[in-house]
Amino acid sequence: MATVAEMLVEQLEEAGVERVYGIVGDSLNPIVDAIRRSKKIRWIHVRHEEVAAFAAGADAEITGKLAVCAGSCGPGNLHLINGLYDCQRNRVPVLAIASHIPATQIGTQFFQETHPDRIFNECSVFSEMISDPNQMPRVARIAIESALSAPGVSVLTIPSTVTQEEAPSGQALSMAHPRKPRVLPNEEDLKDLAQAINEADKVMLFCGAGTRGAHDEVIALAEKLHSPVGHSLRGKEWIQWDNPYDVGMSGLLGYGAAQESMEEADLLLLVGTDFPYNTFLPEKVRTAQIDINPLHLGRRTRCDISVQADVKETLDALLPLVEQKTSRTWLDKKLKSQAYLMDKVVGAYTEDGSKLVPIHPEFAAVKLDEAASDDAVFTIDTGMCNVWGARYITPNGKRRVIGSFLHGSMANALPQAIGAAVADPGRQVIAMCGDGGLSMLLGDLQTIKAQNLNVKAVVFNNSALCMVKLEMIVDGLVDFGTTNDEMNFAAIAEAMDIPAVRVTDPQKLEQVLAEELSKPGPGLIDIVTDPNALSIPPKIELGQAKGFAFAMSKQILNGGFGEVMSMARSNLRNIPRRF
Questions:
Q1: Which residues, 6+ apart, have CB-to-CB distance to 560 below 8 Å?
Q2: Domains of the chain, earliest start first
Q3: Which residues are in the Thiamine pyrophosphate enzyme TPP-binding domain (predicted)?
Q4: What global pTM score does this model have?
């Protein structure tokens, strides 16, 4: 007769699971042994459980299928939590198996005792403990279906003693997964939206990840309304490519004319976005919102008109109801502004970047974008790599851009690259790593070597936590604790038998990237970049400017005049100046 562990693996096979990411150990061993004997599921051994969760999330992002991670009792499954928060906020289908101490010891403060079924409640759509074999296979089925249908994270907590018990007789419950339903807009809401659009002279579209699969419909609406189209970071890969109406991105990482377009519009239409930074959303502009999730409607800014439905379905129904706008004057003005800002501000350090030492990260990002394949997967570390990725990585409808864009965790790029490369081994995967992020989970360079993954870790190595540095400065604080000792990541990678190269000369960067990215298998490119290069947001508040000046004054008084001048030289051309 099958054990509970074997029945669980049988159900995972039935659900189409092909991989489980994790680390073996004590309470998890019966489940891992059942996976070892499976002919359909592969065990992916990582070096840290946090990596397992991030990797599973990227796997699910690439494939759209259920991905699984696992951790042993106590510290093992606790390490999953940061990655699971990220998966939950990204709404990807992930099942986490949290093995537990022996069932008879629960509640006795036994060695490594925690309560995973409680701990994971906040970062999951389903979290339950299987304390009796007779709960199988129903509870496991509910967990799997919950992860797929939400989509989101499900957590199964299973004591080690339970996994070894005999499963109930009969086959595991079969699972017929339904196809994605159509979510159509209410007709009256649609009419209200069409009326508001027809009444407005200047309509601006701001798009998020909810526009996935609706690129052509958004462009058709923009063409009919002569609307500038901005986007959030998560919306970039779905809406920016092949878009003649693009005005860039807003928010802390933003660029281009998106912010000014929002503020000048008669009607701001938020399309499939739960953009969290309400300070960048205008309070006085009439706002409409389309989102499939009703909890997103109006929770960030004013919402005068709301439509709860799938974005593509809504735009298909909306297009015949809106009138063709006749004037392109405002749109052309915003596109002219966008072109200026992209050329003179965002492009400030890319035109002559080959002459700037240390290498400017903007220049490095552009050269990386140019060298990458047309269908590359980019995974991007939180921090300044987010800025350079947002501004310089070019989407084209085939590339993917994955990051911790909602949870904002450091050290996500390498783990997510692992999951993406395992899920699609024939594809080029590029991890844009900050030196701070890579240092946190450095051990999993061993995973890309052991699994022979086609992952290139491109390290923007500035020996600093520059995003934190910027946060301190705008708050009027002298940056403290933001510098790292210089580290040669190429030497570390080579010690792990991973091909690596270190670049300090900007004139050699283009050739190095072209050569290294063309090679199969794992690799690391360590680019030594300017630690003083900071990002200037598109909307600079008076308080931020005062804080910056105050912090610089304190720095000078503390004997840091030279550092202040270096920062000024590194960022002067990033400050917008109007034509």
A1: 478
A2: 4-163 (3.40.50.970), 187-340 (3.40.50.1220), 347-574 (3.40.50.970)
A3: 381-527
A4: 0.91
